[in-house]
Amino acid sequence: MNMNVIEAVSSSSDGSYSLSLQNDLENLPDIVDGTSVKEKIGKDRILYLLNSEDAEVKRAFLIMEEYGTPLDTFEYTVPEYNTQLEILLWRPKKEI
């Protein structure tokens, strides 16, 4: 795939994904530099799903975008990144 994940978010076919999802993808702690084979495979999977025409997949990304990164209102420690995207990054290919 020639397009990277961030470009895919920016140019999604219906313009439904915003800058917050773009930032969430850029801030995943397991993406160090985006050049390892494992990182490239994970990002390619997300790119594949971002380009999906399936309404349920699109809705899932919109939900991840809205609720994925916790607010600072918790009394206990929570991750400062979108955990749903992080899990999706490392899902086995056969499950997608």
Write up this protein.
This protein is mainly alpha-helical and 96 residues long. It is 51% helix and 0% strand. It has 5 helices and no strands. The protein has helices at residues 5-10, 19-26, 37-50, 55-67, 83-90. Helix 3 (37-50) crosses helix 5 (83-90). The two termini are 17 Å apart. The mean pLDDT is 76.
Structure described in brief:
The protein has 96 residues and is mostly helical. It is built from 5 helices and no strands.
Helical segment tally?
5
Q: Profile the largest sheet.
A: none
Q: What amount of the residues lies in strands?
A: under 5%
Uncertain parts = none
Return Rg in Å. Answer: 13 Å
The rounded distance between the terminal residues' Cα atoms is: 17 Å
Q: How many β-strand stretches?
A: 0
- What is the approximate shape? globular
Helical residues, percent: 40-55%
Structural category: mainly alpha
Summarize the helix and strand pattern as letters. HHHHH
- Average pLDDT metric: 76
Question: What tags apply to this protein structure?
Answer:
96 residues; mainly alpha; globular
Topology readout:
Layout: H1 5-10, H2 19-26, H3 37-50, H4 55-67, H5 83-90
Helix pairs in contact: 3-5
